[in-house]
Design a protein that fits this description.
The protein is mostly helical. It has a domain of 46 residues. 56% of the residues lie in helices and 0% in strands. It contains three helices and no strands. Helix 1 runs parallel beside helix 3 and helix 2 packs across helix 3.
């Protein structure tokens, strides 16, 4: 199971909205795959996953919020 905060879900939704409808399923599955190993993903984790998955598609994202990850997991 993947649990995201409202802000994190909004980040993922905004990124998915940048893609053609037919590509969103693949994007969301890729996001879930990258984040599923993290029990409590931080905003930093979600931003990095969004940047990585979109970057693999050749889409640059400059709006991702950067913050330090928590020291504990």
């Amino acid at each position: 199971m993947l649990t995201l905060s409202d802000h994190q879900l909004q980040q993922v939704q905004q990124a998915a909205a940048m893609l053609p409808v037919n590509d969103r399923d693949t994007f969301l599955r890729s996001m879930a795959g990258r984040l599923s190993a993290i029990r409590f993903p931080t905003d930093y984790d979600v931003s990095n996953a969004v940047n990585f998955v979109l970057g693999c598609r050749g889409i640059a994202v400059g709006h991702a919020r950067k913050e330090k990850p928590h020291a504990f997991r």
